[in-house]
Amino acid sequence: AGRGPGKMAAGGTAEGQARFGHSVKGLLTEKVTSCGTDVIALTKQVLKGSRSAELLGQAARNMVMQEDAILHSEDSLRKMAIITTHLQYQ
């Protein structure tokens, strides 16, 4: 009779360990999946940031080109105003 409960306890322990093992494997799988999802989200954010930096650089170059065009136009208008004044005197 002493051996019977020992066997049940041992069987119970083995069953408990198996359940615990499955539980740990399940938690580990969840954590790995969660980490994978986080890595994908981080990668997307980094790519989005680098794309934003690229777009900002392009916008800055476009503004410089526009500024040059505006300065050139301003200079042309000033010259035309001088020519107009000279023509009015004649």
Automatic annotation (TrEMBL):
The keyword Cell cycle appears for this protein: no
InterPro entries attached to this UniProt entry: BORCS7
Organism name: Bucorvus abyssinicus (Northern ground-hornbill)
Keyword terms: Lysosome, Membrane
Gene Ontology CC entries for this record: BORC complex; lysosomal membrane
Family: Belongs to the BORCS7 family.
Protein name, entry field: BLOC-1-related complex subunit 7
Localization terms from the record: Lysosome membrane
Lineage top rank: taxon: Eukaryota
Keyword Metal-binding: no
